Amino acid sequence: MRTAEQYIASLRERSLELWVDGERVADPTAHPKVRPAIEAVAATYEVAHEAEYAALATAHSDIIDAPVNRFTHLFREPDDLVKKVELQRVLGRRTGTCFQRCVGMDGLNALFIATWEAQGTFHERFVRWMAGVQTRDEVVCGAMTDAKGDRSLRPAAQPDAYLRVVERRDDGVVLRGAKIHQTGAANSHQILVMPGMAMRPGEEDFVIAAAMPVETPGVTMIVGRQPSDERKGGPDAGNVRYAGQEVVVLFRDVFVPNERVFLDGREDGHLQAAATLVDAFAGFHRASYGGCKPGNLDVLIGATALVAKEHGVRKASHVRDKLIEMTHLSETVHGLGLAASNKSTRHDAGVWQVDKVLANVCKHNVTRLPYEIVRLAEDLAGGLMATMPSLADLDHPEYGEALRSVVGSETRAKTLRLIEAMSYGAQAVPLRIECMHGAGSPQAQRIVLEREIDWAARMNAARRLAGLPEQ
Ligand code: SF4
Predict the structure, then answer these.
(1) Dmax over Cα atoms in the chain, in whole Å?
(2) I need a surface site. Which of 111, 146, 216, 416 has the fewest CB within 10 A?
(3) What is the pLDDT of residue 102?
């Protein structure tokens, strides 16, 4: 398994086409807007070499018969799902942001199931490719989300809003389109494109799951902006080391050879397998939010307690009560992520799947509870969080000393900047929007809940107690 340093060095060996604010970036590891996100991914390599976390962060792969980083591992037993969520909390707390590697992990597992259902050579191809990912300990960018355009129109009516096959050759396919919201794409080694929704007959060209190295000709990456991202690397970053990253990835006639095509809508059974893929991925990733977000919120809650202490009100009863409220909301989300993982079931492919209802309830709560937690953090932090001058001003020869007596302690100033970054700034891209839309917007979870809940069983339970015949 790679170390964090080896991972960062490996990024310099790629020649990907990466753009930030209209400028082509030659070395992403040296760019102030990219490096903090690289550091967050590097933390996933770091923990794998720490004795305290080795049991969480590593696992034995039966594919290559060797230890692997958990982010490249299959969920071969229920404990793999539980450990995933616990590891995500550790990393969420360490980085205070999105560490970007879970979409790939959840995508690998979902595609393992889907290609197994599709049968034929596609599953074998996928496992061969995955063995390479595990052996090289690579970061996989799980690329699912299409631009989607007008939601009332199907893909065929607006093909440019979806990634699709535009040419089939004897030796592979040519892809055109884009994937948006690509977490950590510029910090990855491989892109794994997958359909972002179930498709219908007639939409076969939009059903494509395939992998390619990030530097494949025709792949163009454009890093997304974040609030206050100009502050990255400077005194007002808030989080002095880590940040998240989202990227638009353009596919401008990208050729993918057959050995890296894992689902193709023109093949028998692949439309249905793609629906399985989308469903399995949604479950995995919605439970993942029960790990990373409580980890991020640990940082925000800790920062809020720190500021309350600096303000001399930590022991005030309303402050204690608000901190407890923040904690109970965060632990609710974590409990749901763990519960969804513990109540898993085995798919015949040999991968364990989360409880879909609990995973969706977990993510649905993530679209709400962090908003209340952030509100309470802002309440306790006070207005200076939003009006404080730059931390660089504290060292100004003319007025630095006078300003320091206004701003208070270094602890107070730096912690307020961190709270600002986590509530309004660049942290986790930013935190609340990611909580709302990452792993699917709230309505997506409600749709799954309506479908998955056993309404008949509930109504019969009521009938029994009401003295009515069951139906
Ligand atoms: Fe992982 Fe959370 Fe980032 Fe998704 S949002 S990639 S689960 S850290």
Answers:
(1) 84
(2) 216
(3) 97
Structure token pair of residue 53: 């976390």
Q: Which of 69, 188, 288 to mutate to test the pocket of ligand 1 (most atoms within 8 A of CB)?
A: 288
> Considering Cα of 183, then 186, then 192, then 195, what sign does the dihedral take?
positive
The response to whether residue 103 sits with its C-beta less than 6 Å from ligand 1 reads yes
Distance set, CA 278 to CA 29, 186, 417 (Å): 33, 23, 38
- pLDDT, tens digit (0-9, with 9 covering 90-100), for 389-443: 999 999 999 999 999 999 999 999 999 999 999 998 887 778 999 999 999 999 9
Phi then psi dihedrals of residue 240, to 5 deg: -75, -10
Which numbered atom of ligand 1 lies nearest the CA of 438? 5
Strand 140-143 vs strand 23-24: parallel, antiparallel, or unpaired? unpaired
Find out whether the beta carbon of 102 lies less than 6 Å from any atom of ligand 1: yes
Distance (Å, whole) CA 364 – CA 361? 5
Residue 91 CA to ligand 1 centre (angstroms): 10
CB-facing half-sphere around the CA of 342: CA atoms within 13 A = 8
Spatial CA neighbour of 332 closest among 378, 305, 370 = 370
pTM above 0.85, yes or no: yes
The protein residue whose alpha carbon is closest to atom 8 in ligand 1 is 98
How far are the Cα atoms of 225, 416, 452, 453, 454 from residue 462, in angstroms, in the given order?
52, 52, 19, 15, 13
Going 146 to 148 to 149 to 155, the CA torsion angle's sign is: positive
pLDDT digits (tens, 9 = 90+) for 103-121: 999 999 999 999 999 988 9
Q: How far is the CA of 317 from the centre of ligand 1 (A)?
A: 34
When the pLDDT of each residue in the chain is averaged and rounded to a whole number, the result is 97
Closest of 332, 334, 326 to residue 422, by C-alpha:
326
Read off the DSSP letter of residue 189.
Answer: S
292 Cβ inside 6 Å of ligand 1:
yes
Distance 443 CA to ligand 1 centre (A): 19
**Ligand 1 mutation pick, 70, 106, 192, 289, max ligand atoms within 8 A of CB:** 289
How many residues would you count in the chain? 471
345-346 and 352-353: which strand pairing?
antiparallel
Indicate which residue's Cα is closest to atom 6 of ligand 1.
Answer: 100
